[in-house]
Design a protein that fits this description.
heterodimer; A: 304 residues; mainly alpha; 15 helices; globular; B: 289 residues; 0% strand
Chain lengths: 304, 289
Amino acid sequence: MAVYEHGYKPYTGSLTPEWSRFLILPRHAFRDVFRSKFFIAFFALCFLYPLVAAILIYLHHNVNAIALMKLDLRELVPINASFFHAFVTSQCSLGFFLTVLIGPPLISRDLANNALPLYLSRPFTRKEYVVGKMSVILILVSLITWIPGLLLFLLQAYLEGAGWLGQNLRLAGAIFLASLVWIVVLAVMSLAVSAWLKWRVVASGALLAIFFIPSAFGEIVNALFRTRLGHLISLGAIMNSLWRGLFGLFQRQTGQIEGMRNGRIIEITMLEPPLWASWLALALICGLCVLLLMRKVRAYEVVK
Amino acid sequence: MSSTIDSATTAQKGARELPWGLWAQQTFSILSQELRKNFLSRRALLLYLLAALPIFLLFVLAILPPDDDEFQNINGLSLVFSLIYNTLILRAVVFFGCAWVFMNLFRGEVVDRSLHYYFLSPIRREVLVVGKYLSGLVTAIVLFGLTTLASLFMLYFPRFSSESTRYFFEGAGGKQALIYLGITTLACIGYGAIFLIVGLFFRNPIIPALLIYGWEWINFLLPPLLKKASVIHYLHSLMPVPMNEGPFAVMAQPTPAWISVPSLLIFTLIVLVLAGYHTRRMEISYVGD
């Protein structure tokens, strides 16, 4: 057929519903991510703790097992807020390392190869693009955090009886919310880093540095000024406070230390920053990341 | 028979006439090019920020001095500096800074797709490794050495200017400053060698870097024998003011300086030989980076 005979014909195939278009991105991303054997091994390792936790919950309710072990497991590892807090803390830490592995190349590859116009020239908005990229992290980290967490909660509720579920419903909310907040922070932060640092390795390094260097800085501030305000610049410490708050374990006073002032020994009470300050610090970090992300994710870039 | 003797003589003569002059010249030329990249490229910005972090903290400390007695007399400040140096400068700034500088030496070129220019030029790969390593080393030592000295002076001089002058130029302070500078230099040499090899051998060097960070961080918990398989142990052994590592620390005899320093240097030499050997057979693949 001659070229001039080619007329415009609209696409007649079935359209992906608008609400689910963003899911195209994770579908393709997962194919890439699961090509790495190291990632698969690490991902599998992330389910070790939930498995151990499930066994512990089961043993709690298995009279024969308790009798066999001659240990009072109920006393040793009680299934309460601390148990689920420890679970969320460890799984969210693994979620961070998972994000370091998968997060950095998400946007950087598109930016480095000028592929963004290819996405945005289709019926696909900037928001959908960002949400699609974020959902790669959201889905994968959810699989190792709140989903097994809630399954463990349900297992415990099933074995313990209906009363326990009613009394501890707050814990289910805490597991979900604590994980979700961390996942959103990770997703937003890694996408912002990925958008600004176009090299994968550099972006991964920067993500690690953002986590570890302010933590060291915060600890030094705490040690020098005999305060706990340094925790406000450490992402790990902020999250720890928030998680403790959500599980009802947060205490502002974390101890007393002795110091020398004017030749006299004085007791200094260590007070953690209030929870609202931690929430505010986290909101500021997320806001900054979103701002950075929005500045970079554009259909075209004016190069001077 | 005579031909065997001839070839042996030629080989000996060849060994004597290795072009050391040319190699030195080439090393110097790579060094100057790389130094320009290390100090003036956009990537250096993060390095400057990192190096400025302790100075910023000490600037704040100079403006808002705590009331504690440690800060009220000049003798207490050595403990304060030991804390800052161990926790912030050595474990965070120098570690991450060296990771950044030395991993970028080869990995950065792969990412920029420019390593083949070096490989196509008529220089031995070993010379390239040495030139690049030296450039990273000079960058790290200059930046983090300055950070160490500036931090030390920022801690002392704003509070006790006249005493500090005497302490550093007539008393024990000068020696202490030199020891800290020496430890920073050794840290750059040791970590530099590790990250050079990590950048060469691993396509994604972040995972090994993370493992090394973890290993160095839990060093205080390790049994004495395992402690020796880390850079931080040798650096801690040289500290003029040892830091309390907490109640959970496993105590170990510090390694004497005459073992620590040569150990790190020998380790670096081995790593450089290994890196040279690896680079000699290296083929570039830019796919996936």
